[in-house]
Specification:
There is one protein chain. The protein is of the alpha+beta class. The chain is built from nine helices and five strands. The protein has a five-stranded mixed beta sheet with strand order 2-3-5-1-4. Helix 7 runs antiparallel to helix 8. The longest helix is centred in the last third of the chain and has 65 residues. The radius of gyration is 51 Å and the shape is flat. The N and C termini lie far apart (201 Å).
Length: 332
Amino acid sequence: MKKIQKTAIILIFLLSLTACGSSSNETLEQSASVDMQSNKAYTDTGVNNFSLASAEDNADVSETEKGGEQNATDTASVTDTSDLTDVIQKDMIVYSGSLSVETLDFDTSYSAVKKLLDENKAFIENDSLSAAYPTKRIYTARIRIPSENYDKFMSSAGNIGDVISQSSNAVNVSQEYSENAKALEIYEAKEKRYIEQIASAQSEETVIQLEDRLTELQVNIARIKTRMSQLKTNVAYSTVDLTLSEVAKIQEKEKPGFGSRMKKVIKDSCTLFLNFCENVLVVFLYFLPYAVVILAVALIAVLFIKIGKKRKNKRIEQKSDKKPENGVKSVD
């Protein structure tokens, strides 16, 4: 009897263990299925979000990833341009000057200017010829001279005529050119990346946005290249502003002193007074016809007024003669 009871207790215990194990397995399977579903949902959501992301963001990410390699390539390509590096390393000086020359023989001096231009391989950028008081003719010109011939041209200015004034200026533009060159290097590297992104873009909207940025970038590149070209030209060719004046008498170069200054002041004041009188005479002659007409009209108006007054006075006198004195009527 006791053996039967022990056997029954052992069977009951085994059955309880089996039930607990199956329930725990079911719980584990349910949790695993839930985890698989959540992972699937997360994966699906991530894929959808990635597919809905803009191509522009992807382009920016690819630009960041490729930045190191691209910069290395661009740096190598810029390093290959040895002519640009050589220009930056050298001092870039822009020379400019001005000359004021007087002459008694204008034609001879003008021929001397042309000869001097040929000797120094210079050319005229713009010029003009005019007549003005008190000189007979004035010739002005902006001359571009190869920089290596600048000093020679300025020292030979005395061959043209009597040099009244001469000035020279030099500006170093090396730093400006170097800054523009570095900016151009960066912009061209960015331009290349934009072109690659446009080629690989899959969205039309992204292509339009990238093309707008590329256009703006290319405008900046063109502006920088224009400025760099201008700097190169100014360095290669110096500028001289020439004024050639024809005069009746060359100005005397007197030593500065009280007597010479007083003489110059008196001479200048007399010249100014004569110029003033001439201007007044010219203005008077200019307005003389108008003054004659106005004076004639004024005289006619005064004449009519006088005639009117005389007639009025005459009528008043006639009325006073007809009126009886003291209000008494006269008897015949």
